Each structure stands twice: as structure tokens, then as C-alpha cells.
Sequence to fold (115 residues):
Amino acid sequence: MAYLKIRLRDLVHIKRQVRDLDWRDPRPRQSLPVLVCRPILVDTASPDEKGCLVLANDRLVLVLVRVACTGAEQDKEGLCGWQMEAGFGRCAVAVLPLFDSLGDALNWVRKRFDA
Fold:
């Protein structure tokens, strides 16, 4: 049988190293979140089913649905904006906004993370 010999001085040194470890999230903090949009179909019980999941730093923050409209503001697909269906964390708000474009929605998320 092999025995492990550890000197007291080594144990004290190891204890100090463990105590000094930073147990918080090791990922570097960023001032602006990394935003990713993933297309998804949302069951809205209406023709508006094209949706998008918005992730900030790999965490779900928004569920958006493309809304149909009539009039001059619609695009070639007959759609005119993005309705926020749900917001999480910093993006949770009482009144769900309507965005003209996906870029506007992403800018809104960035502003929420800056605050």
C-alpha cells in the first residue's frame, strides 16, 4: 500500500489557494449582451405564427411574433411588425411593445441590459 505524505506547510498552502478561489461565474462579463435570434412557430390561434426566440448570453429573454397588418406599412409578405409575446428577466414588462423591425426589438433588448 502506498501512503501519501503531505507536509503541514503544504496543507496550509492548499487551504489558502482554495479560500482565494473566486466561486462566481468564471465567464467574462460583457457590457453588451450577445444576442441570438432563433426562428420558431408560435401557436397564437391566429394566422400570426412566425416567431422568434431572442437569447441574450444564451438565456431566453424575449418571445416575438410577426404580426400581420393592412395598409401601406406592410412589407411584401403582408407583415408589418414584431409583437412581444413574453419577456423574461430584464425584458419583463407590463405593457408588451410592438416593434417595427427585428432590429428595433434587438436594440430595445440592448437598452434594457444597459440600464
About this structure: The mean pLDDT is 79. The helical segments are 8-20, 102-114.
